[in-house]
Amino acid sequence: MQASRTPVSVTGLGLITPAGVGREETWQGVLSGRSTAATDPELKGCAVDLSCRIPLMTPEQARIGGGKAWRMGRFSQLAVLAAREAVADAGLDPAGWDGARVAVVIGSGLAGAAHLEDQTLRHHQGGPELVSPALVPMLISNMAAGEVLLDLGARGPSLATESACASGASALAVARGLLQAGLCDIAVAGGTEAAVTPVITSGFQRMGALSSRVDDPETASRPFAADRDGFVISEGAAILVLEREADARARGQRRYARLAGAGQTSDAYHPTAPAPGGVHAEAALRAALTEAGLGPGDVDHVNAHGTSTPLNDLTEAELIQRVLPHRPSVTAAKGVLGHSLGAAGAIEAALTALTVHRATVPPIANLTPDTLPYDLDCVTGRPRAQRVRAAASHSFGFGGHNVVLVFTGEDGMPVPA
Prior knowledge:
Layout: E1 8-17, E2 20-21, H1 23-32, E3 38-39, E4 50-51, H2 74-89, E5 102-107, H3 113-126, H4 135-139, H5 143-152, E6 158-161, H6 167-180, E7 186-193, H7 198-206, E8 236-244, H8 245-250, E9 257-266, H9 279-292, E10 301-303, H10 310-323, E11 329-331, H11 334-337, H12 344-358, E12 360-361, E13 377-378, E14 384-385, E15 390-397, E16 401-408
Parallel strand pairs: 5-6, 5-7, 10-11, 10-15, 11-13
Antiparallel strand pairs: 1-2, 1-8, 1-9, 3-4, 7-8, 9-16, 12-14, 15-16
Helix pairs in contact: 2-5, 6-12
């Protein structure tokens, strides 16, 4: 069997999002179809003061332990906590595994930018003596993976992916490749982001990317709606445990879905705008389907990137209508969760795996059939029971990064619980 055809399964999921701390809380929150956006006191004075924040964690949920938290950026802390949940969910015990055969790949778009913003202010106000000696490890993008390695005792390949809002999806594509190449037996992979700050929020606002519905936060993020006007900035983390399907079967582990294909392309068109019509995103979708041994007509469901920005949603809608004219169901989690930037692709991949596993498609928040201007079968109002044999998860990032992940059930059928 060729390496590219070696089946890879999702055996564990860890999620920390504005919808909830943990996999089940997040899933139920997304199924509710209720937005988590709210006025953010930490953004007071910004032209747009909306965000989607992670709920306050209990001390037990937030425990890093060992006096380590002080040296870690928040994006790294979220990754560690999500990784712990994912590994436990996969039925794995780091105390008993061969750490040299465990890889960690974690993406982030802005990494420790929030800490740089804070420490720059400290330096400006009080000089270099006020700068934390932990600034550099709190800042650099590889430290989410580095801290997860330390926490789990993993000593296999370790990488940090940076492809803007596609970073988390890129990490999963890379991790799948490491497994198929035989470079590891377990891959702990995903994305993390904690960059809701006044400066970063203002930067997105100044470029016209954010919704200006400050008087009605809960309706601000509205993917694919005709009157959408931008996204709501968010934070979160998702970590998935990936294993070769044969290895997971051998130890009797439950599998959420198979990560059957991954396609990655670049637009080479514009720093922030997508290529017209999504032509290179289409190439990523077709590449992912080819790897999965599927054709466009086999896709039952799309978890859309769905940022709620006018141009990106238009481009993605045109892509889906053109390549998937049989109208698979479409959802977009950013209506509930906001846009968590580099973590979004991993969060949405985890939700796609859950959709396949549980045969349930979450609805898009703040979208109704009468406000949908495209010929798409968008799920609205309430969750839809649907047997999903193959699903595509889209992730697109500034710089023209396109990543599409295709998930299937075992042998193309939903994996039993």
